[in-house]
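Sequence in, structure out. Go.
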Amino acid sequence: MPTREKISIGEHYHVYNRGVDRRAIVNDAKDASRFIQSLKFFNSVKPIVSLREVLSDQSEKNIKKFTKQLVEIVCYALNTNHYHILLKEINEGGISEFMKRLNGGYTWYFNNRHKRSGSLFQGRFKSVHIKSNEQLLHLSAYVNLNEKGHSISGSTAGNIRSSWNEYIGKSNYNICNKEIILKQFRSIKEYKKFAELSLKDILRIKKNKEVPEMLLGRYFY
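Output:
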């Protein structure tokens, strides 16, 4: 299993983690929404002391304090017991700081709400350096369509979130910088077709236990 690599400005990374002992990290839709809000508001050069306070004051003046980003979020997926995020380092130490805020802030919220204590995630976040454009494109498909990759259904399916709807124009969350991916396709429809075909290849790799080095790096859930 890979550990975190040295992170360099201008480079892209596949960042991921899962619940300690593979436990659920989202219990319901409220948890899922809080995680997505955390992605947005903790991605700020100016530190946020309390996400609750930011969410309670959505005035333009208050929101503008936090518009300068720590990292570029390319895409993300929140699953029942793990997450994937594709990030670009744009400030020295930005990814490390962002992930510290995200994991720490969300753990505090989750433990407080569900009356538990201790670690929520399995150690510190892991990262894989994305070394080619091909790898970046295929990873974007895997992350955006992560729910389909795990064939999740039933009561937990409603707790899953990803940036897929941002990419196909069905969400106004605007958390992701999609341009690096979508500019390589003539239309959203063309990217959608690419992503769905790519996911089929990735699932074949997983089923046949082939080494996914070229597409996804050394490790994926």
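Check: The longest strand covers residues 71-78. Strands lie at 12-18, 71-78, 82-89, 126-130, 161-162.
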